[in-house]
């Protein structure tokens, strides 16, 4: 089966290519740069240069595909404020419109399943503070839901066959926010925990995120469904940071009041990290998916080993 990955040169994207190729998919990575194309080849996939808003550049390669995983993510500013997240959201919506335009250009019977990916802060946890596949969408956005909610509405209004996968509020691993920023910050003792650190933070290792996406892409009759993809453990932000510091051999990080952390990281980023939410991935587990890293204890150790090996 052919699987297309949009944004295949990114943190989750190149991992999705590698996991899909290992699972026997014909993995095609749609990329916009030569550097990203090389990452796709190194991961075992076939790169294809495209312009997201121009159907002529990738409609043909989309024909015959089982599914398209949309992992295109605009560049995030270092400080994520309400103003900057509004600009990012506008870019993301424009990108989604281009994806939908290309998929609509295909004959109705040949349109692949669109696997839409976003963070769990778009789901309303309700009084029990737990999100699941049955959770309604938030009516008032918080955190990265400022980006995810408008995208979901666009997809629903398009009528395209789509499945919605909600990843943990942090996808961690060797790269991007965790491996490139948090780990070095903790090692240099310059990365405090925003807030008390007692809030539950649903997380998933990047390999498991990629495996979950390719797993869902291969499931029958999932259009219209939603899945929550996390490791299933109840982890607090403080536990994650403290364990990482312990494995690095440095003291546990300090706790910084939210109002002091906001000016450095931006209010939206702090809000996303300090939301107190548990996650119920039972719908995904019932389809036969099992995480490779069932908690942060296994995942952080593997991440630090990968970071050390890269150095």
Looking across the biggest beta sheet, what order are the strands in? 3-2-1-4-5-7-11
Assembly state:
single chain
Shape: globular
Helix content: 40-55%
Please report which band the strand proportion falls in: under 5%, 5-15%, 15-25%, 25-35%, 35-45% or over 45%. 15-25%
Kindly provide the name of the CATH class.
Alpha Beta
State the fourth-level CATH superfamily. Answer: NAD(P)-binding Rossmann-like Domain
Helix and strand succession? EHEHEHEHEEHEEHEEHEHEHHEHH
Integer count of domains: 1
Task: Round the mean pLDDT to the nearest integer and report it.
Answer: 93
Low-confidence stretches are none
* Main sheet overview: 7 strands, parallel
Distance between the termini: 36 Å
CATH architecture: 3-Layer(aba) Sandwich
Beta strands, count: 13
Radius of gyration: 19 Å
Characterization of the model:
The chain has 311 residues and is α/β, with parallel strands linked by helices. The protein has a single domain, classed as NAD(P)-binding Rossmann-like Domain (Rossmann fold). It has helices at residues 11-22, 34-42, 59-62, 82-104, 145-158, 176-187, 206-217, 237-248, 258-265, 267-274, 282-285, 296-310; strands at residues 2-6, 26-31, 46-49, 65-70, 113-119, 130-131, 162-167, 170-172, 193-194, 203-205, 226-229, 255-256, 278-279. The strands form four sheets. It has a seven-stranded parallel beta sheet with strand order 3-2-1-4-5-7-11, with helices on both faces. Helix 1 links the parallel strand 1 (2-6) and strand 2. It starts with a strand and ends with a helix. 48% of the residues are buried.
